[in-house]
Amino acid sequence: MKDMNRPAALHEGHRERVKQKFLANGFEGFSDHEILEMLLFYAVPRKDTNEIAHKLINSCGSLSAVFDAPVRMLESCGISENTAVLIRSINEVTKAYLSDKFYNSTKLYSSEFLRQKLITSFMGLHEEHVILALFDSKGFEVFYGFISEGSFSMTEIRCRKIVDIAIKYQATAAVISHNHPSGIARPSAADIESTVFLRKALAAVDIRLLDHIIVADTNSMSFALDSKYVEIFM
Q: Is 42 helix (H, G, I), strand (E, B) or coil?
């Protein structure tokens, strides 16, 4: 007689083997679809998650693209909304983890430390955003956050907003940053002009612009550390 429980037993045995492999060495030796497959174990209890993982990666193009994909796009691959939300949360969980692990508000300003934090904050963003970081007279961070979405161009209105925030937090120094979704951390003529414009606006209220950092994926460019632009901050 055919054992009707055998497929289920094999299914559970596979999941247990994958879990033990992870517990032994983390994701070392796992392919991208196997990483996704294991994650799906906890959202899809009775289906072949290997097949689902392959479909998701083939549809999106890569593992990271799966984690960056909108919920509705993930659902179109045949998974439930709850499963899609779980997958989409990985990007945000990663940001929160890295921020908590490496960010300590008691640390003094460090260009390298801030650069790493900015790279984390811009992860997964496909549109241009602007982040402002403010520091007090002792070099402690008093504000950090997104202040706008769209082109970095420092119009008078946006500049006034930055100055108002800096005054509100009684900051004495600031760092501005924006991302280049194109993947190239190279300043445009408008970026340079806007940096000069903002430095002058902040200087008028005795706040020093320390740096302008452009982030592109895991790469970054610091105006203050580049010999071509360092005079802007003098």
A: coil
